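Data availability (excerpt). The following record was deposited with the supplementary files.
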Amino acid sequence: MLSRFDRLYRLLATGFFFAALFGGGAVVAALTFPIVGLATRDARLRRERNQHIIHLLFRTYIGTMRFMRLASFDFKGLERLRAAPGRMVIANHPSLLDVVILMALIPRAQCIVKQSLWESPYLGRLVRGTGYISNALPSEQLLEACRQSIEDEACLIIFPEGTRTTPGEPMQLHRGFANIALLLGIDIQPITITCTPPTLLKGQKWYAIPSYRPVFCVDVGEMISVGHMLNDHERPLAARKLVRMIKAYYEGKLADG
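Predicted structure:
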């Protein structure tokens, strides 16, 4: 009886948080961003304030999930993340909540997002108001936007897989993050995310909740310097080498549990 009640509770709570993630973001953007815009003429400062609003919103979101015992969160090495302004933050991507967790942990976060999010009726206003970078930009403009973010000491969040991991398939990394890191000469802060039992996977319906409360583990690894990699290799070769190194890093971390 108790297990049935627990499952029903988690199902209803998951539905509420799933709706809040999309609808709540649209409401916050509609209510707060215009106020910030009226009070802040400088475009850069306006973006920073909007980004900080999202950071606080997602911190509240994660904290409420924990308070309502819908999920648990275990964070390791956060001191490395707090000491890493103006760097690229990469992470594997097992769950829908990954970006929410990272932005809850990083006060100054910049992201490269899918163009479809810019056009989304739910999150489009939020994405545009925070100045997140569209992946549909021409390569020169995208690189310049990343450079500006780093110079502004924001953490540039990138998921090298480009989308959530497909369950049961090996990790596939795109080379874009490596090219950006090499071209800008910026360090990489790797983060490993695991969720046990798995939930909100790619292709999984929100109501397919696990049999018990999931635990999200976020492990912030040691900084990876890439500046030396161009000394011995042309950039295409260096990018491929960096991708192989990062893939091996994640395969090792995930194999260790």
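Summary of structural features: Residues 2-255 form a domain with the Glycerol-3-phosphate (1)-acyltransferase fold (CATH 3.40.1130).
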